[in-house]
Recover the amino acids of this structure.
C-alpha cells in the first residue's frame, strides 16, 4: 500500500447555501473546506459501517436476516410510538360519536369476539 498522500483539490458542485454552510463549519473547526468535507465524509462512513455491523450482529443473535431484523425493529418502534400516544385530536362531530359509543350498552358477543382476537403486536 502506498503511504504517500497526494495533495489535490476535491471539486464538488454544491448549491451556494450548502457551500456557505460547509465553509462556516470549516472556519469554526479551523480547517480548510476540503479537510472539513473529508473529515465529515469519513465520520459519516464510519457511522454507517458501525450501524451496519451493529444491525448485523443483532440480526445474527436473533436468528434473522438483516431485512427481517430491521422490519421487526421498525414495527416495534411504530408500536411504541402509537401505544404511547395519549392525545388524540378530533373534531366535535367525531368526539360526540365517540362519546355515544362509550355510553352505549355493551354488545357482549362483539366484546367477546374482540377480546378473543390476537393483538397485532403479539
Amino acid at each position: 500500500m502506498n503511504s504517500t498522500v497526494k495533495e489535490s483539490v476535491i471539486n464538488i458542485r454544491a448549491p451556494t447555501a450548502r457551500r456557505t454552510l460547509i465553509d462556516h463549519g470549516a472556519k469554526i473547526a479551523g480547517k480548510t473546506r476540503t479537510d472539513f468535507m473529508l473529515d465529515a465524509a469519513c465520520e459519516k462512513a464510519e457511522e454507517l459501517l458501525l450501524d451496519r455491523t451493529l444491525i448485523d450482529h443483532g440480526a445474527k443473535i436473533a436468528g434473522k436476516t438483516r431485512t427481517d431484523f430491521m422490519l421487526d425493529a421498525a414495527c416495534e418502534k411504530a408500536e411504541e410510538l402509537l401505544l404511547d400516544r395519549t392525545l388524540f385530536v378530533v373534531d366535535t362531530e367525531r368526539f360526540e360519536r365517540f362519546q355515544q359509543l362509550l355510553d352505549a350498552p355493551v354488545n357482549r358477543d362483539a366484546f367477546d369476539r374482540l377480546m378473543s382476537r390476537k393483538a397485532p403486536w403479539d
About this structure: Residues 33-62 form the longest helix (30 residues). Residues 111 and 117 are 10 Å apart (CA to CA). The chain is about 70% helix and 0% strand. The two ends are 53 Å apart (CA to CA).
